[in-house]
Amino acid sequence: MSEDKKLPDPSIIKEEILAKYPPKIARKRAKSMVVVDKSMDQEVQSNVRTIPGIITQRGCCYAGCKGVVLGPTRDIINLVHGPIGCSFYAWLTRRNQTDPGEAGPDGENFINYCFSTDMQDSNIVFGGEKKLKQAIQEAYDIFKPKAIGVFSTCPVGLIGDDVHAVSREMKEKFGDCNVFGFSCEGYKGVSQSAGHHIANNQLFKHVIGRDNTQPEGKYNINLLGEYNIGGDAFELDRIFELCGINVISTFSGNSNVTGFERSHTADLNLVMCHRSINYVAEMMETKYGIPWFKVNFIGGDATAKSLRRIGEYYEDPELIARIEEVITAELPSVKQAAKDVLKTTDGKLAMMFVGGSRAHHYQELFAEMGMTTVSAGYEFAHRDDYEGRKVLPTIKVDADSRNIEELKIEADPELYNPRKTKVELEDLEKNGLEFSEYKGMKNDMADQSLIVDDISHWEADKLIEYYKPDIFCAGIKEKYVVQKMGIPLKQLHSYDYGGPYAGFEGAKNFYTDIERMLSTSIWKKLKAPWLETGASDPCICAEYVA
Length: 546
Known about the structure:
metal ion binding; molybdenum; EC 1.18.6.1; Rossmann fold; ATP-binding; 3 domains; metal-binding
């Protein structure tokens, strides 16, 4: 879309949506629906409880802890303490991929397994700790894992089973297996964001810093907030290897426990998904002296920019030259791929309501295809995800957030080692390299676009009717409803069956997949069953009974 073409006024549809709500609810929802005006400081209400009765896209605390942060790690047994449904729901739903590891294809890869204590009614009444101990013992005897994580679901928190005490007991019994628990009951917090925080805390307490083996590489980094959906981390590992950069650990895509244990030996932390893993980055900086900055490897230009920032950080001419060689070799084919799809994609409109960084980062990919994002939002954002970290001092801690443990971190007397002096960091910042900073999604959106936090199905339907977008990006809960409205939907949680979409090769894959979706005419020929008006069509009729 050309720069001079203005977006339609979203305040019209915003008012129409809010008019259907009771006044009190409308006032609350209005604060989470913001028409972007980058000349102003605008507050986007977020990280608040979903209004009862509204069909939300959000997941629970347990899903954020087990499903997102720990789920992609191949050599930890993720044992769910709760009814079997909780474990089954979080099993292989995100298409996390992994290398087979040093032991080969039949070695320490437990991602394909579904581990659960399968609590029954009797366990709810009389307690489930005995059953949990038995399950941990069986998992250890059969698989001999390096670590076992125990994840609490809602019933566990209600009946009071102490997963931490059981974990400590079993860890002491085994001696060679790190067993630790997560109080990540689904009802904690307001969304899966609480689970991210809890997972970060427990990884920091029980895993990070356990192995002081020093890396052999010259440039050693951790990549945080990359979960290897559809093989994204494989592509990034390829690029880093070409540049001569050594990845000690990725949190948590294509990850292993040993990498987590050694992650404190890195020179630099790169943060992709800010919301899911920023706690670890900040705690590692405080305890070990590892600086961090935000990166984006979604899109060709974004990947090149992030690589150059790494070169700037190390201030090594050899590394900088090597990075430029890689960019020179890789970027032209990405530019050509974007040019090839322009005839189909240029001027098209996109909407995206996804978790993590995806509703933000993928706007850059769409822009490379000549597409405009007219509306976007997160499922589980906090205000800083929209407005930038500058607002952190003004965010009030509510009761839901106080339920989550805040670790008191201090510099490690033996392992604290600032990778850069204060003067060196200041000089780098003067040259444009921003540490511990994040501008937020609003900064990259066009004026007159619409931010909607924790969007509901009703709101999504009305926005589709108003904007008539060419593509809608969300998750599985929205996929089929949106497609029945004649709009193609791309899942950005699991990539459907596509990917990788990160890095240079990933960008080309994304261009191709989106162009195919926009080229097909089948979507416009669809008509949702509930829109049929013929007299012979089936209908559901009801009337109120006094």
